[in-house]
Amino acid sequence: MKKYVPFLLIAILAGCTTPQTLYSWGTYPQQNYLMYAAPEKATATAQITKLEAEIEKSKAKGLAVPPGLYAHLGLLYLQLQNSLKATQYFELERQVYPESTVLMDRLLQKTTTSTEKL
Amino acid sequence: MMIKQAQTIGLTAILLSLAGCVIAPATPKDISVYKANMPKSILVLPPVNDTPDVKATYSYWPTVMQPVAEAGYYVFPLSVVDTMFKENGITNANDAQNISHDKLKEIFGADSALYIRIKQYGSKYQVLQTSVSVAVDAKLVDLKTGQTLWTGEKELVQANNNSNNGIAGILVGALVDQIVNNLSDKAYPLSGMVSQQLLTPTYTPGVGLLYGPRSPKFQQDGIVK
């Protein structure tokens, strides 16, 4: 009987989580939290390093990148004055998620006219 | 004998796993307007904070996007939304939630917006126990027609009860709890559970969001497999 206990526990836990998720989230939600709660732990550079590594891992496993993550990276690059990378990420977000077209077009337009502000 | 036992345990496991997802008996809601105006994208506006804890808005807000996206909708990135508002002089959640639907649609190109109010956030210190609670109200609004598509509310309370210890143990426990709560914002993980339970589609249509266009279960709400 005892050896079945772990299976029972897993079954209970499984009941409360979705069997499979649509996206590979990595630390993206936590980075958003840290950005405001403890900004020193989530600088633009630190986030980029972490999130890009996670995206590489997800892609290798064939998992989908969640909505907004590419655009978030674009914004981080914009904060580092790297408008080339920012543009690439905004375009990627628009391509993968056409629902973002209006917002991404707005960001792309502003990225090309000024690197200072959005 | 062994097989029989395994079967019993298997059945129990299945029952338990089902039970794990049932939070409370829920009555179905009218979902006709929601279905007729099914949004592809949801703009999560900064939650209005009705609590004394100034951290609430920016601690709760990041927990919303994951369950919304997993339900099958495009969810706009928080950092970009926040930056857009701030660059346009909108510096608090109240002002953001008072922007006209037309304007939100124009700026973000969103089909719908999620309006959240935080009613409770954080720790309540008492002598014998410390409890953490998070409570929110939410409303999904169609930005084309202004119609309310869905509403929901959720409250979770996590109490750290020290009743098994002697009186000295109780006092030490309460003190330690308070310190731990102060160091790591315990309401943040609880917020994640609140968002998850509030927004994740359930077998009861309208309790939780409906499955959105990006979900493989789109238009299969209320169907038990």
Q: What is shown here, in short?
A:
With 118 residues, chain A is mainly α. Helices cover 65% and strands 0% of the residues of chain A.
Explain this structure.
The complex is a heterodimer of chains A (118) and B (225). Chain A is mostly helical and 118 residues long. Chain A has one domain (23-113): Serine Threonine Protein Phosphatase 5, Tetratricopeptide repeat (Alpha Horseshoe), CATH 1.25.40. Helix content of chain A is 65%, strand content 0%. Chain A has 6 helices and no strands. Chain A has helices at 5-16, 28-37, 44-60, 69-79, 83-96, 101-113. In chain A, α3 (44-60) packs antiparallel against α4 (69-79), α4 packs antiparallel against α5 and α5 (83-96) runs antiparallel to α6. Chain B is 39% helix and 22% strand. Chain B has 225 residues and is of the alpha/beta class. Chain B is built from 9 helices and 6 strands. Chain B has helices at 2-19, 32-36, 56-60, 65-70, 78-87, 93-97, 101-108, 167-183, 187-199; strands at residues 41-44, 48-49, 74-75, 112-125, 129-142, 148-161. Chain B has one domain: ABC-type transport auxiliary lipoprotein component (Rossmann fold, 3-Layer(aba) Sandwich). Chain B is globular and about 50 Å long. The longest helix of chain B is centred in the N-terminal third of the chain and has 18 residues, at 2-19. Classes of the chains: A mainly alpha (118), B alpha/beta (225). The A-B interface holds A 1, 4, 7-8, 11-16, 18, 21-23, 25, 29-30, 32-33, 35-37, 66-69, 71-72, 75-76, 97, 99-103, 106-107, 117-118 and B 5-6, 9, 12-14, 16-21, 40-41, 55, 58-59, 61-63, 65-66, 69-70, 72, 74-80, 83-84, 87, 107-109, 111, 185, 188, 192, 200, 214-215.
